[in-house]
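Lab notebook page, bench 4
Experiment: in silico fold of construct C2
Operator: M.H.
Input chain length: 246 residues
Purpose: comparison with the prior construct
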Amino acid sequence: MNKPRSSAKAKPRYKRVLIKLSGEALGGESGAGICPEAVHDMATQITEVQKLGVEVVIVVGGGNIFRGLQGSERGIERATGDYMGMLATVINALALQDALEKQKVATRVLSAITMTAIAEPFIRRRAVRHLEKGRVLIFGAGTGNPYFSTDTAAALRANEIGAEVVLKATKVDGVYDKDPKKYPDSKRYERITYTEALEKRLKVMDAAAFALCQDNKMPIIVFDFFRPHNLLRVVSGARVGTLVTQ
């Protein structure tokens, strides 16, 4: 088995990346609540690439705490439920910020909903300046608007701040033609075009997010974030996961 290269030897392929993390990832095995061990492991991987000089932006979901769409199915007004979900993403952003700062990584939480006591407002030029100073950014509260997912927020922010790639961190090692948990004969794609992914109805990101990436030629890499050092491998240009591109 090939050992991962240490951060001292690895050379980053990308200068600025956006990592899309699901809220469930912060919940560990159960996918619910916040698991301190899971958050610590995430922070360790992020610290590895930040020490290479890579500018890191993170968009985190809130599904481990509250998901607006599910709330609306249970009688909560959809817009209200979505705002509740946005607040859940800020809770997750603060948890991740705490874990990163315990590893001596300067971190800023920027929120699309104004809450100045705990987060800075999202201002694009300020965000870019933070990155240039070597700070990790965590964007909370999605786009600040109901009816839009954190996938869409990730695609939007990636384009706004000039990221080179969207890294979609998941629990599977890429995009498959069918659910690998249900079908042992499923096929993993190493590389696929936006058009092929749409035609095959592969669940890479939601439609709005996917359209933003496709229109702006923003590549997406779907990879297993829970394998040790995998983020380092991706940023270093190793063939990890599935690349979605033109």
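Observations: The chain has a mean pLDDT of 92. The chain is about 35% helix and 20% strand.
Next step: discuss at group meeting.
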